[in-house]
Design goal:
The protein is α/β, with parallel strands linked by helices. It has nine helices and eight strands. It is about 25% helix and about 5% strand. It comes from Malurus elegans.
């Protein structure tokens, strides 16, 4: 319980890939018998269907029809739909360990995963792995397939990148670490070209990173970095935050989801050479209050004061912000 492998097996069980209308059974017995021959070719949708059996096309309709009891929920992922349809058209591909060869993209979101164990290495073709909204506090790079290009670990409990950076997948292009517990100054050293030579996109949003100068000095070593998300970190409160990053990382195309245009680069040109301005022990926070409920209307009291001979009544309010 709590391991990636256990969560994946539970996920497969939930998809019911071995039950009707998927897999092999009495509903497609002739196809099952044909596959016993080593020379048999996979049957197509146009193959004649014996009496009492269901064609692959008819069983696909049962999966796709929203009124069918076998249909997947409307909010199911493309991955769920793919596996169910493969289990209809070519169930032998999902038999035993073969299932690990089919998937190039895998999503286990909000499945209670606490540990990324060695079972992940069975996915020898895996290119994209999404493990968001779990309880992962540590990722050992030796447990990650070397074929990975996308790794998303957002909304977990990661506080240290050391184990992840021992020998990470060399071809990784996107790393998603938003909404974790990363804090400086020890984590910046793990975000260099030594670990991520092919990284194009990096999401570090909503962590506790504070040292902008050190972080930029490390990120500047990433030769292919084009997309960066840092919003939600304390360092993003520095007044010169965006301008400093735009001028310091000339290859960056998007910062916090906003495209960097040439005129913006020109406006902030030279700011990277003035780091002293960033060392000010202050930050800028702008708070706008659009509406407040449950408070007396000042206009009503003003009218009472005009018509009344009683003493003047005043009210005062204050708002507290905790950071």
């Amino acid at each position: 319980p709590g391991t990636f492998s256990a969560a994946f097996q539970e996920y497969l069980r939930h998809l019911a890939l071995q039950d009707f209308p998927c897999s092999l059974g009495s509903w497609n017995k002739s196809r099952h018998d044909a596959r016993r021959s080593p020379r048999a070719e996979p049957a197509g949708l146009e193959e004649a269907v014996p009496l009492g059996e269901e064609s692959p096309e008819a069983r696909l309709d049962l999966l796709r029809d929203g009124h069918s009891p076998w249909a997947l929920p409307p909010n199911c992922s493309p991955q769920d739909q793919l596996l169910r349809e493969v289990a209809v058209l070519a169930p032998e591909l999902l038999h035993g360990s073969r299932v690990f060869q089919v998937l190039k993209t895998l999503q286990l979101v909000d499945k209670g995963v606490e540990e990324v164990d060695e079972g992940l290495l069975r996915f020898q073709q895996l290119e994209e792995l999404f493990l968001s909204a779990n309880r992962i506090s540590r990722v050992i790079s030796a447990h990650l397939p070397r074929t990975l290009k996308v790794l998303v670990l957002s909304c977990n409990a990661l506080g240290d990148l050391q184990d992840l950076c021992v020998q990470p997948p060399p071809g990784l292009q996107h790393l998603g670490l938003g909404y974790n517990r990363l804090c400086g100054p020890s984590q910046e050293k793990h975000l260099t070209v030594d670990f991520w030579p092919n990284l194009i996109s990096l999401d570090l949003s909503f962590n506790s990173l504070t040292d902008l100068l050190e972080l930029v000095s490390q990120l500047s070593t990433l030769p292919k970095l084009q997309i960066l998300v840092l919003q939600g970190n304390p360092l993003a409160l520095i007044p010169a935050y965006r301008g400093f990053l735009v001028d310091s990382l000339p290859k960056l195309s998007y910062l916090d989801g906003i495209q960097i245009w040439p005129d913006e680069r020109l406006r902030f040109h030279g700011l990277a050479k003035q780091p002293g301005e960033l060392l000010m022990s202050e930050a800028r926070v702008v708070v706008s209050i659009g509406e407040m409920k449950g408070l007396p209307d000042p206009k009503a009291f003003q009218q009472q004061e005009v018509d009344s001979e009683g003493p003047e009544i005043t009210f005062s309010y204050y708002v507290t912000y905790e950071f």
